[in-house]
From TrEMBL:
The lineage of its organism: Bacteria, Bacillati, Actinomycetota, Actinomycetes, Pseudonocardiales. This is L,D-transpeptidase. It comes from the Bacteria. The keyword Cell wall biogenesis/degradation applies. GO terms for molecular function: transferase activity.
Length: 168
């Protein structure tokens, strides 16, 4: 993924349009009640393709553990519908925060968990935790389980170095 623009098209257009108007006009526009009304982001459970995700705009994949949802994202916008996930148990939780994709293995087998298959593994930490296809009805040992079709899509979309954000 990693297609983030440092300066958005919207910001470039705004600068091009507002520059000839002058500073006084810009501050008058900024003071209008409509300019002060911030758009409201949808609740995480309602986020779908084209909606803002509940992570920063640098995330290539956004995970909301409280909602059991994940999204592929570009510039803070979901590039597809929400994916149902399961995560770690209270005894073996999924870590939160920002990290990057470290490696990918299409046919990984767990060394820590009785040779359990972990198809479409995308590792995001040094402890062996990964996004992968798995049972989305129960908890994991700290990994993010996805339905098989979603795991394939995430595996295809993410590259090593892409940003992973996991929030509670």
């Amino acid at each position: 993924m990693a297609r983030h623009r440092r300066t958005s098209d919207r910001a470039r257009t705004a600068r091009a349009v507002l520059a000839p108007i002058g500073l006084a006009a810009v501050s008058a526009v900024g003071a209008s009640p409509l300019a002060l009304a911030a758009p409201t982001a949808p609740a995480p459970s309602a986020v779908g393709q084209g909606d803002a995700v509940p992570c920063t705009d640098t995330a290539d994949v956004c995970v909301d553990l409280s909602e059991n949802k994940a999204w592929l994202a570009d510039d803070g916008v979901a590039t597809g519908d929400a994916m149902t996930i399961t995560s770690g148990s209270p005894a073996d939780p999924t870590p939160t925060g920002t990290t990057t994709v470290q490696r990918k293995e299409r046919h990984h087998v767990s060394q820590e968990n009785r040779d359990a298959p972990m198809p479409y593994s995308i590792f995001f930490d040094d402890e062996g935790r990964a996004f992968h296809s798995g049972d989305t009805a129960g908890t994991s040992h700290g990994c993010i389980h996805l339905e098989v079709e979603d795991a394939r899509a995430v595996f295809a979309a993410l590259d090593i170095g892409d940003e992973v954000q996991i929030r509670q």
